[in-house]
């Protein structure tokens, strides 16, 4: 059974206060304003596949750890681009995880999965090699029940709002179906997020072909810069009509750069013509930076909250990328600079109350040095939650300790689970709420906050702040 004082601290007085604070926030609805759950999961509402394909195969937190210790990804059911053999037996995949379960000790992946097994599926048998089949069967039995269909779990999890993330080229058919079923659309509980990276980044292989698709989808001439911008705006309008409240930009850096229309047009044509043979990295960076400025301008005009997720060295493990493709655990964080990089954008829009820019980082050193001072000084800026490599219990704790002095609580945007793993959503939010309760309890026992202030703040961090920052209240 889950320890009721999990992550609430060890000092008795602090733990008692933390327990009270967590009790106040634990039952609040879940607001998930940024994540990567496949919207077809809820649109189709089909029974989940076997336990391995639900909990292991798509979870690159787990698969990358096992791969680092010599387990080939194809043994874990991860597809191969060359069409080679991949383990198809879910039970065999589950046994492989059980054999290597010790590799995940003290990681958030293990904590999330253990909480998921116990609290979602009611499994109290400890996973180990000799119990692998028993645990697998217990989960499989649950998955066959109507109560474990995606929409039933959506209600059970207490999700008030779930934002998915789609490419500009997505036809949004899943969200159309959700809207027809009363779950999606403007004001719905499942909404989309506009993610245009694959038509903005000239260094992403296949860029020119995707621009052709963008033109065909919108009826605009993307062979020209003006036609390209018109096509991007057209897709943005389609996402707004489908209920989107935010855009998301996963650029390599936070660099922004102002170009006039003539300069931008020349650069676009140069990149377009060089896409097949290889673009100049400097040109690509300037173009991405210019587009970030334009996206901020668009956000001022249409009200979409703008999210910026820089700092990932994508596909660092070339062999994995070649064998298995993108988004399978081969990415690595790198140092990221914000103060100079964002200056052109902030000079133009940083004091405009119509812009909401939520900044994330994979570089913890930037929290106190750059992000907290920036968010504490510009009305348009908010600090996004620790994500990806940083949304661990210790990472969440360090975040509060480093940003609160300068940015306070109100300049942060609340927790985001950033997950593809639907069944992990409630436990990830639970962990974040426990960590915040422990941090606030320390401030209470240190005499910095009253209990009443801490109770109100715990509710803000869990629920009210993300609703307000991501403009989900209307």
CATH superfamily (homologous) name of the largest domain: Metal-dependent hydrolases
Distance between the termini: 39 Å
Under the CATH scheme, which architecture of the largest domain would be assigned?
Answer: Alpha-Beta Barrel
The CATH class name of the largest domain reads: Alpha Beta
Low-confidence stretches: none
Overall average pLDDT: 96
Shape: globular
Strand residues, percent: 5-15%
The count of β-strands is: 11
Number of distinct helices: 20
Please tell me the total number of domains.
2
Q: At the third CATH level, what is the topology name of the largest domain?
A: TIM Barrel
Structural class label = alpha/beta
Structural Rg: 23 Å
Helix and strand layout, with pairings?
Blueprint: H1 12-26, E1 30-32, H2 39-44, H3 51-55, H4 60-68, H5 90-99, H6 108-120, H7 132-143, H8 150-156, E2 159-163, E3 166-167, H9 173-180, E4 190-191, E5 194-195, H10 197-200, H11 207-218, H12 225-241, E6 246-249, H13 261-274, H14 281-302, E7 305-308, E8 312-313, H15 318-324, E9 332-333, H16 343-349, E10 357-359, H17 365-375, E11 381-383, H18 393-407, H19 425-445, H20 451-469
Helix pairs in contact: 1-19, 1-20, 6-19, 11-12, 13-14, 17-18, 18-19, 19-20
